[in-house]
Automatic annotation (TrEMBL):
Keywords: Cytoplasm, Endonuclease, Hydrolase, Metal-binding, Nuclease. SUPFAM superfamilies: Ribonuclease H-like (SSF53098). Pfam families: RNase_HII. It catalyses: Endonucleolytic cleavage to 5'-phosphomonoester. Its main location: cytoplasm. PROSITE patterns: RNASE_H_2. It comes from Candidatus Dojkabacteria bacterium. Its EC number is 3.1.26.4. Residues 85-244 form the RNase H type-2 domain. One of its GO terms (biological process) is DNA replication, removal of RNA primer. One of its GO terms (molecular function) is RNA-DNA hybrid ribonuclease activity. This is Ribonuclease.
């Protein structure tokens, strides 16, 4: 049996929550701790303990090799030091006609949220199981800068008869969350540099034709497999989190 390893790391106060989010994303679980000097205590799937003290010391204890954890902490600092422009992404989940609602989400990603979702490993929601989606969504569902539109089957069928085109219905829902989001961001003086759409139509004007004044003034980027953009990936995961 291997000996217990104990490693102590110096952590800045502003990084306390970031470290916690990183470990939670790796399936560590928070433990109750009444120690007045402890910010939080987490247990790994292998039984190791991570204790964050108000002094700024992170103590890792257990029989597992902590090399991977330390590497992730180092990589997180490198990744989040890159320049990032806050922007808005849109994606949808579901068809709306029979197997559940159509859920369209627009998500504004600022620098703080960017750091968090990078830690959580956000990517195209289709890559994750329902259980993983529920876990990721639970960590971001209180974020104030995402905007959703849900069209349930009866309403979806009614609207497709009116529009006679499912793509037009989808474009209108995209435009709806974009306008709502940009209006809210403007009222809160948040700077949105551009909007990214996961292109679903051969015509790039399909969505832009449905936009209001705020949307028409914004810079738009559209391309297939838009989930490679972090804002679109965030919208994708939140949409599926609402859907499931």
């Amino acid at each position: 049996m291997s000996n217990q390893n104990t490693i102590s790391l110096d952590i800045k106060k502003e990084e306390f929550q970031t470290i916690k989010d990183l470990l939670l994303a790796q399936n560590w679980v928070e433990q109750n701790d009444s120690n007045q000097y402890v910010v939080y205590r987490l247990r790994s799937p292998l039984g190791s303990i991570a204790t964050m003290y108000f002094s700024g010391k992170l103590v890792l204890q257990g029989r597992e090799d902590f090399t991977r954890v330390i590497s992730m902490l180092k990589k997180e600092k490198e990744d989040t030091s890159e320049e990032f422009l806050a922007h808005f992404g849109v994606d949808e989940v579901g068809k709306g006609d029979y197997f559940g609602p159509l859920v369209v989400v627009g998500c504004f990603v600022n620098e703080e949220f960017f750091k968090k979702v990078k830690l959580l490993g956000f990517a195209d929601s289709k890559k994750f199981s329902d259980e993983k989606i529920e876990n990721l969504y639970s960590m971001v569902k209180d974020y104030p800068y995402y905007y959703s539109s849900i069209v349930y089957p009866n309403e979806y069928n009614r609207l497709t008869k009116i529009y006679r085109n499912a793509s037009l219905l989808l474009a209108k829902q995209h435009a709806k969350v974009i306008e709502e989001g940009l209006r809210d961001l403007e009222s809160k003086k948040e700077v949105c540099n551009y909007v990214v759409i996961d292109q679903f139509s051969a015509s790039k004007s399909r969505v832009t034709n449905e936009l209001g004044q705020l949307g028409k003034k914004s810079k738009f980027i559209q391309f297939h497999k838009g989930e490679s953009d972090i804002a679109v990936a965030s919208a994708s995961i939140i949409a599926r989190g609402i859907f499931v």
